[in-house]
Amino acid sequence: MTGNAKGKKILYGGDYNPEQWPEDTWEGDLKLLKKAHINILTLNVFSWGLLQPKEDEYDFTMLDKIMALVKKYDFKVFMATSTGAHPAWMPKKYPDTVRAESNGLRRKYGRRHSLCPNSSNYRKFSAALAGELAKRYAGYDNIVAWHVNNEYTGMCFCENCEKAFRIWLKDRYQTIENVNKAWNANFWSHTYHEFDEIVVPGALSEAHMRWGKMKSFFQGLSLDYSRFMSDSFLECFLAEKEAIRKYSKDVPVTTNFQGIIKQLDMHKWAKHLDVVGWDNYPGYKEEPAAVGFRHEIVYGLQDGRPFALMEQSPGVNNWDEYCRLKRPGVMRLWSYQALAHGSDTVMFFQMKRSVGSCEKFHGAVIDHCGRDDTRVFREVADLGDELENRLKGEILGARTRSDVAIIFDWENWWAAEYSAGPSSHIDYMAETVRFYKGLFKGNISVDVIGTDADFSKYKLIIAPMLYMNKNGFDEKLRNYIREGGNFVTSFFSGYVDENDNIITGGYPGKWRDFMGLWIEESDALPPEEKNFFTYKGKTYEAGFICDLLRLEGAESLAVYGRDFYKGVPVLARNRFGKGNTWHVGARADDDFYRDFLKDICMELEIRPISAAAPENLEVTVRENDNGRFIFLLNHDSNEICFESDMTGVDMLSGNQITAGKAMTIPGYGVVVLKQNR
């Protein structure tokens, strides 16, 4: 699906649901989509109720017609299995197939994202349908990938899941004594004597809302339940994949992640996906760096293999609080941002607006008016023409080489945000984005990696709020630093083991030797309160969590400016072996992350992609045998002018760019600069 660029095009298209429209409209739709340079259609996403009207009956009549027509018009197909929403007969006859909420109430038939991942009936019927689809359509040479389910998400708290969870725990811990030890179960008389005493950690047991966030009274249990739920959904995926593989041996099989989905350990899932796919729906207030960071998470899931952008809106998102239109040029800009960060596809939800139900006002290539002269249609067609006739597939398979990596870990995400302290407003994603944004502003290329990645490839590794020190991780990190690696971390890092039990002896636990410090206390400040510190003559704010550092060989780089801990170190550096570590003991403002990380990168000779490009211009790079491709993305409505330090040809305009000469990028504009290798 992705890879060598020879003879291939960027896949451009997305979800098309002709079953929601009269048959006599289909051919007209396809003609319009051809006019927009669409070359791939995601079909059959939500058709289970049509495909299997009864338990023992399949009906592929409509899908056969759709597939024949799509083939006639020479479209590639991303074939979905339709298992993301039940047919109505299934919950009626098999109520175990729908999930129970945290409060114990089982859902009835309706909406989507309702499956119980541990229902044997759901698994049986979903795998059977996937197999029937593969058996029937595997011979279609225009199917380029299989799309299992749709946007897996949520959790189930039913009796089936409770029983399956106990089996999962037996496999993980072997004995109930090991469970008690892992969960520190003597706390609040939680000691278990039999596995069947363990209940799911829903609202009837351990889960509770605190300050608008779901928390747990018993974090070890809730952490393991999060692991179990992710594994359970993965088993559902694998059952469908296995059914498909009986008939379709070589076509890639994947699913589409609903953004960076917290409930699923995407690192673990990525090992089982032939290509990673995800859906990107930025909010109207989101910063470009936050969106770029999410793309980088996806890019890093398979060690830098190109991914598939499977959904974005061509126009408006209809589920937002304020359904704000994408301004002219923004759809194109965000499409190129995906390509700039490693996607080999540009795909949308949806090709045509539905006339009814909850997505009828969501943006589409073909609007309710059915015309080819709407603003959105014209922008989609222009982008399609540009991808087809300007880029020509040259960037396919291109990769990024980075000297800097940021660690992002799902189990850490779960554990940190289940925590009952030091603040109820812990936001792991936001904290990592702060560091990424500092590098983003400096045009420094960054990979986002997991804890099991190869650290030796990087000059600098950053791990903000890495609360959990998994078994063996500290030794891996210690060896990396000792041999010349460089490591930056922040407050609330290194505190607990993989079971969310404190590593005693002073925070940051097993990191104390290479960090050269310990943390005596941490002060959690409400938003209206700030401390401050001065670093290299410039004053920055300090807030949220303020670590009070006790140095054990580390050097203080900055101290707090007020309160009873005035003069106590907030920023420290330690030299360990051939490498260095830095601890950022408080949340600072954006300027600090930019300045601080720039200093480190200069010292380590980590160079920006462009030293001349201003910080409000996003700059990324991808490389393959065809050349080096530098993406310059203007996320502002105003033009950006600067003196270029790059030479090459803009693939989109054909203009020659020369170092030392002025370069202007219009508002929401894009340049893809090609350089020969």
First and last CA, distance? 25 Å
Q: Strand order across the biggest sheet?
A: 13-12-14-15-21-20-19
Estimate what percentage of residues fall within beta strands: 15-25%
Q: Output the number of helix runs.
A: 17
Gross morphology is globular
- CATH homologous superfamily identity of the domain at 404-603: Class I glutamine amidotransferase (GATase) domain
Please, what is the average pLDDT? 96
Report the biggest beta sheet as strand number plus sense, adding barrel if it closes.
7 strands, mixed
- DSSP strand count: 29
| Helical/strand content category | alpha/beta
CATH architecture classification name of the domain at 404-603 = 3-Layer(aba) Sandwich
The fold-level CATH name of the domain at 404-603 is: Rossmann fold
**What is the multimeric organization of the chains shown?**
single chain
Low-confidence stretches: 3-7
C-alpha Rg, in Å?
Answer: 26 Å
